[in-house]
Design goal:
The chain contains six helices and six strands. The protein is α+β, with helices and mostly antiparallel strands. It has two domains: 8-76, Winged helix-like DNA-binding domain superfamily/Winged helix DNA-binding domain (Arc Repressor Mutant, subunit A), CATH 1.10.10; 91-154, Dna Ligase, domain 1 (2-Layer Sandwich). It is globular.
């Protein structure tokens, strides 16, 4: 996995390369998702609003949509969860999710190339990706009483 940066010059270049204007909210969202991958829109808003107090939740949703459409973010939608966003894009990785505390971690695909799975019947589709989510208990939840997750732990 490529290391992601919060360095402003690099973030500006990524936005320009994707054909987007460089704005403070876009920079702040990218930085927030570097610090807290697999965050939902509300968690991103909480981080962005510390830096840009006049930013609205709706503005953050708009930025998340624009960055996802431009290929700078990936949106994942685990069952029973709000949509989560991450900056790790362009590779074939999957996710591990704890069924207790809901921590989310990346896991590289064992096959490597997308799609790593083929449907038994493609019905004429040209399949280009498969989304795999592994569910189970993380080590912390296996070893003790079920903790009450904080926002940072929930979407690690």
């Amino acid at each position: 996995m490529t290391s992601l940066t919060t360095e402003p010059t690099a973030l500006r270049e990524q936005l320009r390369a994707a054909g987007l204007k460089v704005t403070a909210p876009r920079l702040a969202v990218l930085a927030a998702l570097t610090e807290q991958p697999h965050a939902d829109a509300d968690a991103v808003f909480q981080r962005v609003s510390r830096e840009l107090p006049t930013t609205s939740v709706q503005a953050v949703y708009g930025v998340l949509a624009a960055l996802t459409d431009a290929g700078l973010l990936r949106r994942i939608e685990p069952a029973g969860s709000s949509a989560l966003y991450e900056r790790r894009v362009g590779d074939n990785h999957h996710h591990l999710i704890c069924t207790s505390c809901r921590v989310v971690l990346d896991v590289d695909c064992a096959v490597g190339a997308a799609p790593c799975l083929e449907p038994s019947q493609a019905h004429g589709f040209s399949v280009d990706q498969a989304e795999v989510t592994f569910w189970g208990l993380c080590p912390a939840c296996q070893s003790g009483p079920t903790p009450t997750p904080t926002e940072g732990e929930r979407h690690g």
